[in-house]
Amino acid sequence: MPDTILVIAEQREGKLNRASLETIAAGQAIAAATGWALEAAVVGASVGSFANELAAKKLAKVYSVESAKLEPYTPDAFAAGLKQFIEAKQPKLVLMPHTYQVRDFVPKLATAMGSTVISDCIGFKHEGGKLLFTRQMFQGKLAADVSFTGNSPWFATFQNGAFRGDKAEDGASAAPVETVKVEIADGVVRNRPQEVFKEAKQAVDLTQAEIIVSVGRGIKEQKNIEIAKQLADALGGELAASRPICDSGWLPMDRQIGSSGQTVAPKLYLALGISGAIQHIVGMKGARGIVAINKDSEAPIFEIADFAVVGNLFDIVPPLIEEVKKAKAGN
Amino acid sequence: MKILVCMKQVPQKDAPLKLNETATWIREDVSYEVNEPDAYALEEALRQKEKHGGEVVVITSGPARAQQVLREALAKGADRAIHLEDNAFVGLDAFNTARAFAAAIKDEQFDLIFTGLQSDDYGYAQVGVILAELLGWPHATIIMQIEKTDAGIKVKRELEAGFFQFVDMPLPAVLTIQSGINKLRYATLIGIKNAKNKPLRKVALADVQSAIGNNLQMIEKLYIPQKTKNTEFIEGPPAEVAKKLVEKLRNELRVL
Lengths: 331, 256
Ligand SMILES: Cc1cc2nc3c(=O)[nH]c(=O)nc-3n(C[C@H](O)[C@H](O)[C@H](O)COP(=O)(O)OP(=O)(O)OC[C@H]3O[C@@H](n4cnc5c(N)ncnc54)[C@H](O)[C@@H]3O)c2cc1C
Known about the structure:
Chain A has 331 residues and is of the alpha/beta class. Chain A has helices spanning 18-34, 48-54, 75-89, 100-112, 225-235, 243-247, 278-281, 301-304, 313-330; strands spanning 4-9, 11-12, 15-16, 37-44, 61-66, 93-97, 117-127, 130-137, 142-148, 154-158, 177-181, 192-198, 211-215, 238-241, 268-272, 289-294, 307-310. Chain A has nine helices and 17 strands. In chain A, the strands form three sheets. Chain A has a nine-stranded mixed beta sheet, sandwiched between helices. Chain A has a five-stranded parallel beta sheet with strand order 14-13-15-16-17. At the A-B interface, α3, α4, β7, β8 and β9 of A face α3, α4, β7, β9 and β12 of B. Flavin-adenine dinucleotide sits between chains A (216-218, 242-244, 256-261, 273-275, 277, 279-280, 283, 293-296, 299, 312-314) and B (13-14, 117-118, 142).
């Protein structure tokens, strides 16, 4: 029997999330490189319909791992249920998307199995028979190739967007689906989660903005936000920010861009003093044009910028405001 | 409530990083600071203590330089500190780091353990959750609010895309704290002075060696990531850069 890769897909609010398909695409790529078999599982109280949906993909088998205790999500139930399932199936490698839910339970699951997780990976390499996982380090300034040195099951999670979900191949015919009931004893689940909710409705909707000027910690002080505001006004755009600016209360939370804020795709995203951490980038990388001004030539934001200025934003923004005004007046 | 806060020293955000000779880690001659979410974790612990009484203990692992993080925490109001002091701690994976911490606190009885939700260097986001599993405690991650209840605590978890969830849980528990949960305080002069007399327990590698094992994962190679996009760098004095940028905005991005 060849070794097996198992993808644990994530479903929420009645849907398989996009990250799950990305992880299937990752699994297919690793299976192609290693010759290992690829299977998938979906976990919950009654998840057969998701398993059937996944079965259209090129997979050797799909499992729905079920127990009434798996709904609502708790780390205790997911770790206990998946431990049982994985011990029975003995996959070599277990892949999951690096979602908030996965990061909540996968280190617990791996520890309970005496194993480890290489978390938040952006790719893999298969070199000389060795499997390496690439992940960002130091907030994206460096990358590392990481290997497993212990026994399987090995766990790895993939960052949102690391693989393309629409590239997940369909199978020639539907994969067989099997329901596996797991036993989770009373008393295992200790947390009592309440309903998921969104804070009061957002006052600003940046998703429709065509031009966004976004400020990061490079703006240094609250009062300096004014020059970014002037630039946004001159351009006829909206003002947005990275998380630390909103954490400090310098701009309201509903102007935050990123994984815990809004996701935008304007024609122009002008980043002032933003380093380009992945949690920020996921919220704006869909912008058609990205201009970044940052004093650090190594800042990761430059990796995704169309136009980049290495320099002090306080030197560049004032003349930029004037030039924009001139250009607008000339129109 | 007796609260332990796990804190880490990481390279400063703006520090230029250089690779070491084997390209497996960075050269250590950079400036360091406290990992940002850990500062919020400490602040939250201090606030909980101010509300409910108890004790705040801070713990870190790393070489002598890492003591700075503990000194700052003591100056802000933590009661005592534990330092797992050895350069070797820097290279431990998350499982081993958690095992070392668990061994170092085996004679203590905490109600809560806080960690930052992830570190700015490795970014594993794992030590807190692993520690909970090793201790047999419940945990919750990415926490934005903590309230004491009759039965334990009620915490607010941040979820993706602006969603949240309240979770009731018993004590003792481990929580990983998100940046922005509170407003950080500064150390006062008196605080800095008092910190000098607060207890700091040192733990040597040998003291916890039997609790840890081989790393289960290894960095084979560290490198500067390849660029994926053709970025055009605009250079010159500010006035010229401004002119060139406006030309790009007009002619290439067509937003003017
Ligand atoms: C679970 C989770 C969720 C998160 N969600 C989000 C999110 O939704 N949105 C978000 O933004 N972040 C989020 N973060 C935080 C994220 O990881 C980063 O910490 C954050 O994006 C950094 O913000 P920044 O770039 O403004 O600050 P820094 O990383 O501190 O960068 C500041 C930059 O300014 C530059 N600079 C300084 N002075 C100047 C100057 N005078 N001129 C020009 N440049 C200058 C510096 O070189 C540096 O690159 C999240 C983190 C986690 C773990």
